[in-house]
Write a structure and sequence with these properties.
Elements lengths: L8 H17 L28 E2 L5 H5 L8 H13 L1 H22 L4 E11 L11 E14 L4 H67 L5 H35 L8 H4 L12 E2 L4 H6 L1 H22 L4 E12 L11 E10 L7 H67 L5 H35 L14
Parallel strand pairs: 1-4
Antiparallel strand pairs: 2-3, 3-5, 5-6
C-alpha cells in the first residue's frame, strides 16, 4: 500500500523541522562576545639606529619568503629545499593541521540533523506460572532523526573555536618553517665557520712547523739554543691541539644538518666536505617598521588565532546557561511477523520538539564559564607577550648585526697588521736583530686575530639570518612548500 505524499509523516516531520528551525534561529545572536584583535600600540620606528646597509622600507614579500637566496649559496639553497620537503618536525606540523581540519569537521557536523538507521529483533515473554505461552517476537526497522536547533549559538561558537584552532595550526606550520629555514642556515654557516677556522689553524700550523724546523737547523748549526727550539715546538703543538676540536665541530654540524633534512647522520658528508667560503651579505636589507611584524610573524598570528578560539569557547560555555531546543523524530515499521514488517499496516512514526534547561548543576556551568574566561585572559596575555618578544628579537638582531660589522671592520685591520708584524718579526729574527720570543708572540697574535676575524665574518652572516627570522621570513601564506 502506498502512502499519499500529502499525509506522509516523514515529510511532515522534515517540513516542521525546517520551519521551526528557521523561526527560532532567525535574529538570534550567539552567546558570548565577538572576537576583536587586541590593539597593541607599537612604535613607528626601531629603537636601534639603522646603519648603512639597513633600510626602513617595507621588505619585498617575495624576497623575504626565500631570503636565503640573497646569500647566493647554491649549497645552502639546496639544503633548505630538502629540509622543507623532508624535515620531521615540519611533517609533524602538517599532521597537526590535518588533525585540526578533521576536528573542525566534527564540530561543523553538529550544525546538521543526525539520521540513524535502526533495526531490531526482540524476543519477550512471561514466567513459567503463566496460563499460556505468552512469548512473542517483535521485528522493527526504520530511521531515527534528531536536530539540536542552535538558538543561542553554543554550537556555532564551538565551530568558531574549531575554525580558529585550524587557522592557528596553519600558523604553527608557518612558524616551524621560519625556525627551520633559519636553523638550517645557521648550522650551515657554523659548518663553514668551523671549516674556515680549521684552514686558518692548518695554515698557521704549517708556518709554525717551518719555524720549528728552522730552529732545529739553527740549533744544530750552533746559531740558536734549546730554549728557542722548545718554544717553537710548544707553539706548534699548542696550535695542533686545537685542530681535533674544530674537526669535531665540523662533523657535528654535518650530522645536525642531515637530521634537519630528515636523513641519517653522515648522509650529507659528501655534499659538505668541499670547503666553500662564507657567503657575502647583500648590500641592503629592508627591515620595515615594527607594525609590519603584527601582520608577518607567524607566532603572533598563531597567538591571535588561539585567542580567537578561546573567546569562542567562552561563548560556548555561556550558552550552557540557556535552554536547548531539539527536534526528534522516527519513522519505521514494527510487526510481530517478519513477513508483514514492510507493509503499510506496520508503519509507525513519531516526531516532536524537546527542550532542556539546566536548573541545578551545583554551579558547574558558571564555574566552567569562569574557567574559560580565565583561559581567555591568559590567551590575551600570551598574544601581548608574543608581540613584545617579537619586537625584542628584532631589536636584538638589528643591534647584533650592526655592531658585529663594526667589530669585523676592526678585526680586518688587526689581522692585516698582525700578518705584517709576523712577517717583519720573522725577517728581523732571521737577520739577528730580535730574539725568538718576539717571533712567537707575533705568530700567536696572528693566529688569534685571523681566527677571531673568521668568527666575526660568520657572526655577521648568522646575525643577518637571525634578523630575517625575527622579521618572520621563510614562509608564504599559501605557498606550495607549506602543503596547506
Amino acid at each position: 500500500m502506498r502512502i499519499k505524499k500529502k499525509n506522509h509523516p516523514f515529510r511532515l516531520f522534515i517540513g516542521a523541522v525546517g520551519c521551526l528551525a528557521a523561526m527560532l534561529a532567525a535574529g538570534c545572536a550567539a552567546a558570548g562576545q565577538e572576537h576583536v584583535r587586541p590593539d597593541i600600540p607599537v612604535t613607528e620606528s626601531w629603537h636601534t639606529p639603522l646603519a648603512d646597509g639597513l633600510s626602513s622600507r617595507e621588505p619585498d614579500p617575495d624576497q623575504l619568503v626565500t631570503w636565503w637566496k640573497t646569500l647566493d649559496d647554491p649549497v645552502l639553497t639546496g639544503l633548505i629545499e630538502k629540509a622543507v620537503t623532508n624535515n620531521l618536525e615540519l611533517r609533524s606540523a602538517k599532521a597537526r593541521i590535518r588533525q585540526a581540519r578533521a576536528e573542525r569537521s566534527v564540530a561543523q557536523a553538529s550544525l546538521f540533523p543526525a539520521l540513524d538507521a535502526v533495526g531490531s529483533v526482540v524476543r519477550s515473554g512471561e514466567g513459567d506460572d503463566s496460563a499460556a505461552d505468552s512469548s512473542r517476537t517483535m521485528y522493527a526497522a526504520g530511521f531515527d532523526a534528531g536536530w539540536e536547533i542552535d538558538l543561542f549559538g553554543g554550537i556555532r561558537r564551538s565551530v568558531e573555536a574549531a575554525e580558529a584552532k585550524f587557522q592557528a595550526s596553519r600558523e604553527d606550520l608557518h612558524d616551524v618553517l621560519v625556525s627551520l629555514t633559519a636553523e638550517v642556515a645557521v648550522n650551515y654557516l657554523e659548518l663553514r665557520t668551523s671549516q674556515a677556522r680549521l684552514r686558518v689553524a692548518q695554515q698557521n700550523l704549517k708556518l709554525q712547523e717551518d719555524t720549528y724546523r728552522l730552529e732545529q737547523y739553527r740549533l744544530i748549526a750552533g746559531l740558536s739554543d734549546e730554549l728557542a727550539a722548545a718554544q717553537a715546538r710548544s707553539n706548534m703543538e699548542n696550535t695542533r691541539s686545537g685542530i681535533p676540536a674544530l674537526c669535531a665541530q665540523v662533523e657535528a654540524s654535518k650530522n645536525r644538518l642531515a637530521v634537519l633534512l630528515g636523513e641519517q647522520p653522515g648522509s650529507q658528508h659528501e655534499t659538505l666536505d668541499a670547503y666553500v667560503p662564507l657567503p657575502a651579505i647583500p648590500l641592503e636589507v629592508a627591515v620595515g617598521v615594527p607594525a609590519d611584524l603584527l601582520r608577518r610573524r607567524p607566532d603572533i598570528r598563531m597567538a591571535e588565532r588561539e585567542l580567537a578560539a578561546q573567546t569562542a569557547r567562552v561563548g560556548a560555555a555561556v550558552s550552557d546557561l540557556y535552554p536547548r531546543f531539539y527536534l526528534n523524530g522516527a519513522i519505521g515499521y514494527e510487526s510481530l511477523s517478519s513477513g508483514n514488517l514492510l507493509t503499510a499496516d506496520s508503519l509507525v512514526w513519531s516526531w516532536g520538539p524537546k527542550v532542556t534547561w539546566p536548573v541545578f548543576h551545583g554551579n558547574a556551568i558558571r564555574a566552567n564559564i569562569e574557567v574559560q574566561s580565565a583561559l581567555q585572559e591568559q590567551a590575551a596575555i600570551h598574544y601581548e607577550s608574543a608581540v613584545l618578544s617579537a619586537l625584542e628579537e628584532v631589536e636584538d638582531a638589528l643591534s647584533a648585526y650592526v655592531e658585529e660589522q663594526i667589530r669585523r671592520s676592526s678585526l680586518t685591520e688587526a689581522a692585516a697588521a698582525a700578518k705584517d708584524a709576523a712577517d717583519f718579526a720573522q725577517n728581523n729574527y732571521d737577520a739577528g736583530m730580535i730574539d725568538f720570543d718576539t717571533v712567537l708572540d707575533a705568530q700567536r697574535t696572528l693566529l688569534s686575530y685571523q681566527d677571531a676575524l673568521v668568527q666575526s665574518e660568520a657572526a655577521v652572516v648568522i646575525n643577518l639570518v637571525r634578523l630575517y627570522k625575527a622579521l618572520g621570513g621563510g614562509w608564504t601564506p599559501m605557498g606550495a612548500a607549506t602543503g596547506t
